[in-house]
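User: Last request for today: this protein with adenosine-5'-diphosphate, please.
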Amino acid sequence: MGNVIEIRNIIRDFQLGQETVHVLKGINLDIKTGEYVAIMGPSGSGKSTLMNLLGCLDTPTSGSYILNGKDVSQMSDDDLADIRNTEIGFVFQTFNLLPRTTALDNVALPMVYAGKSKAQRIERATEVLKNVGLADRMDHKPNQLSGGQRQRVALGRALVNNPSIILADEPTGNLDSKTGDEIMKLFDEIHQAGNTVIMVTHEEEIASNAKRIIRLRDGLVESDTFS
Ligand code: ADP
Ligand code: MG
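Assistant: Here's the final one, the structure of the complex with adenosine-5'-diphosphate:
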C-alpha cells in the first residue's frame, strides 16, 4: 500500500514575544495506509504540535506535508477546513463535544460541513453510534454521558466521514484505566477495519497496542520501531 502521509523536514517555530521557540526541528516521516502508529516522548517534546500539523489544525513554519497525495502544507485556510472535514478524524483528550447537542448531532456535524442531506446524516450517524456501542445513547447530551461514552461519541464523530487518517492525542488521558482499555479495544477494531490510526500516548501499555512506535525527543524523531 502507498503512503497516506509523507512529511519532509517539518519545522515548527513559535514566536513568544521577542523569542523564537523551536519546537519541531526537522521531522521526516512516512506512514502507510492502514498502519497503527503510537507517538511517544516526554512532555514538551512536540507530540501535540506534530499531531496538530498532521490534523491540519496548524501549518508548518517550513517543510512539506503530503496527505493522500496532496500537498497540504501551503493550502489556504478554507481548503484546510475542507481537508479536516473529509480526510481527517481527530480525537482529543478532552473529547471537545458540543455541550448542548445530542450524541447523534455531535456525530453528524462533520457531515453537515461535507454537504450531506439530513436523511444521509441520520442514517450514517446512527450506524456509527451503533458501531461504537452507543445505540441506546443517541439522544443524550454530553453531560448525560460518562467520560468513556463521551469519548465514544468523539470517536464516532472522527469516523463519520470515512477519513483517510484517524488522529488521537492522549485519547485515554482523562479516563480511568478500565474505561481506557475499552476505548483502546475500539481503536483496535477501527484499525482492524482498515483505518490508519495515529495515537499519542505516554503509557507504554497503551502504545503496545500499536504496530509501530515513534519516539520524539526535543522536537526530533529519536526512534521509530515496528513490532
Ligand atoms: P507534548 O505534546 O509533547 O507535551 P507540545 O507539542 O504540546 O508537547 O509542546 C512542545 C513545546 O512547544 C512546549 O515547550 C510548548 O510550550 C511549546 N508550544 C506549543 N505550542 C506553542 C505555542 N502556540 N506557542 C508557544 N509555544 C508553544
Ligand atoms: Mg501533548
